[in-house]
Structure formats: C-alpha cells, structure tokens
C-alpha cells in the first residue's frame, strides 16, 4: 500500500512539473529589446575599438533579439551625427523583422568621425524600449567634408575621383605624376611651364552656382622664366579666364589672385579676389568692399607662394554676397558685395556664373593655363598665348583639387588643411 501511495505521489509531482513547464513555455509576457549585432560597412560596431577606414558610402545594419516596431524606426529615434560640427546626416531607415538598416542619403565626408545614436523611443513589437545606445566610427582617408562635386587627386591619373569631370582623350598634355608634399599625399600633377595642360570639358557646370568652394594644394617653381629671361607669372588654372574663373600667382611671388565672373540683376561682371603683399582693407586705406585683409610682408608672401606647398581655398556665399580667401587654413582676405557703392549692380550679385563666348574662350576648365587651348583670347600676346613657351604657363605641382557647391566653414577648411599638410 505504501508503494502504491508513493507511486501516486510521484505521478502527481511529475504532472505538476509538466503543467509548470507548459506555463513557462507559453509565457506571453513582453520581451525586452536588446541588440545582438551592429555593423557599418561590414565592420563590427560592437567591437572594443571603434571601426576606422570605413567607406564613405557604407551601410549600417543593426540586428535585435526581437522584431522592431517599424513606426518607431524614425529619424526622431535614430540619428547619425557628424562629430566636428554636430550636424545631422540625412538617413534612409528601413526595417525587416529584427533587422534595422540605415543608409546615409549622401556620401559621408572622408577622415571624419561619426556617431550613431539609438534612443529609447525605438520599440520592439512588444512595445519594449531599447536602452539609449551610441556607437562611433571614422571614415577612410584624410579629412574632407561631404558633398564634393569634383575631386582630382592625381594619383597617376587626371580623372575626377568624385564625379564625372574627366579630361577628354587629348586633354592631358605633358603631365607627369610625381611625389607630392608628403608620403600620405601620394602623387601630384607636375607641370613643365611650357606645354603642360589638363583640360576638363563642361567646366561651366562647376561654377554655375550660388554657393561655391574650391580648395587645392599648389607649389610654384621659381625658375619659371619668360622670353626675356625674367620671372614669369603662373596661370595655375582657368575656366575662360575672368569670364569664368582663374587663379594666378604673380611673377615676383608677392601676391596672387582669383578672377571670377558673378551673376547680378543686370547680367554679370568679373571681380578679383586680389591678394598682394601688404594688403589693405576698408579700415586701412583699401577698397570699401574689402572687409578684411591680412597684411603680409613681401617676404612672408613669397615664403608662401615661392617653391613651397600652399593650401589655397576660396569660398563664395551667394545669399551673403561674400567671398573669402584662405591660405593654409587661415583667412587672408574677404570682400562683401553689400559694401559696394549704392546703386552698383554688384550689390545684387546672387552667385557665380560663366559668361564666356567662343571663339575667345571655351567652357573647358584648364589646369596649367588661363584657359583651354581651344580659346583664341590673347593668342598673340607673349604672356597669354598658349603656343608661346615663355607665356605664363604654370610651372610646378598641383594636388587634391576639390570643388563644392556649398560654402565650407572656417572649421572645415582648417581641419582639411591640418589633415592633409
């Protein structure tokens, strides 16, 4: 009898365990939301150290332990922040079950730190929140802000690395690719001062814009002479000369200038960003529209422009009608069309433009001369005709030319210079 009772007790106990097990197995309570994995361009965002050398077009993928509530996967709860200026990168967000995919809508800048933030507003299908989570990663290369329209790095080629502004088949003449300013910079395009030129078609598209930035490294050789044996100026680059855009270094290396065509209410007109040694502004006897000028001595200016690498940046803000010139990441000179005389058409400038006409000039951006060979302007001038070896051809090196249709900030320009020097 005792054995029978023991057996009944054991059966009852096993039944109770089965009931409890079944109850646990059918637990319908809410499931917590946790991250199982995070990657950016295939690199682990959950690793002990933040990923580096991430591609600028990398996709971020986050996998959770439960399905995501799609309506909570929004830019209010998921952000990608550019570290140096705290700006938000526009992102496309998609959800498939427990997987969250984040695609930046633009290519990220190079050599920049980014932070991904996921907030507690992100919920799973059980309405359980995610604990606040942040991860960082750094993109590949030296620092450049996002949004480049064109970029010539001259690593053995004159092709545009950011877009489609490549030279034509016959548009690269007597260019050598030699060591640049440092090992990290790789190669630069080297110009012989007589015949070297690179010609980019449809260059007018590059400067027809309200907001503009051009940045590049240049080294001008002082052994560049004209037909009389005197130092020659350097036409570093030109797009229809002053009918579009040009940059030149003076023959005695005591200054340089941009000449650019600007659109205004009555048509267009050229204006020089003239930066000589001992520059003046409106507060020191200069033109009323020049609101700042750094006064470098002749020796200081020559140290920048002669036989040394110089980082040059020019920006134009169409809404503010303001142009700024930077050398080595520092403001050298600026002007403001709003300070021009009352009634002057340039007070209505809205942006940059191209006003060239054939056969004088052609809409090709030339590196190494003031305009492309197809133009006839100044053909008979010993300083301005491409066929004259003693003309103001550029002799030296160019590297890392970047064009943006936006105004880079002083911080961005300084960081770009510091990362590339």
Automatic annotation (TrEMBL):
Signal sequence residues: 1-23
- SUPFAM superfamilies named in the record: Concanavalin A-like lectins/glucanases
User: From which domain of life does this come?
Assistant: Bacteria
Q: Which UniProt keywords apply?
A: Lectin, Signal
**GO-annotated molecular function:** carbohydrate binding
The record ties this protein, via InterPro entries, to: ConA-like_dom_sf, Cu-Rt/internalin_Ig-like, SbsA_Ig
Span of domain SbsA Ig-like = 50-139
Q: What is the name of this protein?
A: Concanavalin A-like lectin/glucanases superfamily protein
């Amino acid at each position: 009898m005792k054995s029978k009772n023991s057996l009944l007790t054991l059966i009852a106990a096993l039944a109770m365990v089965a009931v409890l097990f079944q109850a646990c197995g059918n637990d319908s309570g809410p499931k917590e939301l946790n991250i199982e994995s995070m990657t950016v361009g295939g690199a682990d965002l959950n690793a002990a150290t933040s990923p580096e050398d991430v591609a600028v077009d990398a996709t971020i993928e986050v996998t959770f332990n439960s399905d995501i509530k799609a309506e909570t996967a929004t830019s209010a709860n998921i952000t990608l922040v550019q570290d140096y200026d705290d700006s938000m990168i526009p992102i496309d967000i998609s959800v498939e079950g427990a997987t969250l995919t984040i695609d930046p809508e633009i290519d990220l800048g190079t050599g920049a730190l980014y932070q991904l933030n996921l907030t507690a507003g992100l919920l799973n299908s059980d309405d359980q929140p995610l604990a606040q989570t942040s991860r960082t990663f750094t993109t590949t290369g030296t620092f450049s802000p996002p949004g480049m329209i064109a970029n010539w790095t001259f690593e053995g080629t004159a092709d545009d690395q950011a877009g489609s502004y490549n030279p034509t088949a016959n548009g690269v003449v007597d260019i050598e690719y030699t060591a640049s300013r440092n090992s990290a910079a790789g190669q630069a395009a080297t110009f012989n001062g007589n015949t070297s030129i690179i010609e980019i078609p449809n260059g007018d598209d590059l400067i027809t814009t309200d907001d503009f930035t051009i940045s590049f490294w240049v080294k001008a050789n002082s052994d560049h002479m004209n037909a009389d044996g005197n130092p020659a100026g350097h036409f570093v680059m030109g797009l229809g000369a002053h009918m579009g855009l040009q940059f030149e270094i003076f023959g005695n290396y005591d200054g340089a200038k941009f000449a650019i065509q600007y659109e205004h209410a009555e048509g267009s007109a050229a204006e020089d960003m003239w930066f000589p040694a001992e520059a003046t502004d409106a507060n020191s006897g200069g033109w009323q529209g020049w609101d700042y000028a750094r006064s470098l001595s002749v020796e200081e200016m020559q140290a920048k422009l002669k036989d040394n690498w110089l980082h040059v940046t020019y920006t134009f803000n169409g809404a503010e009608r303001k142009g700024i010139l930077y050398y080595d990441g520092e403001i050298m000179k600026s002007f403001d069309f709003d300070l021009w005389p009352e009634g002057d058409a340039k007070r209505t400038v809205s942006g940059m433009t191209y006003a060239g006409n054939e056969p004088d000039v052609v809409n090709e951006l030339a590196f190494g001369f003031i305009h492309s060979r197809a133009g006839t302007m100044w053909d008979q001038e010993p300083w301005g005709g491409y066929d004259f070896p003693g003309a103001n051809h550029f002799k030296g090196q160019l590297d890392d030319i970047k064009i943006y249709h936006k105004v880079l900030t002083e911080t961005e320009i300084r960081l770009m210079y510091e990362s590339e020097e």
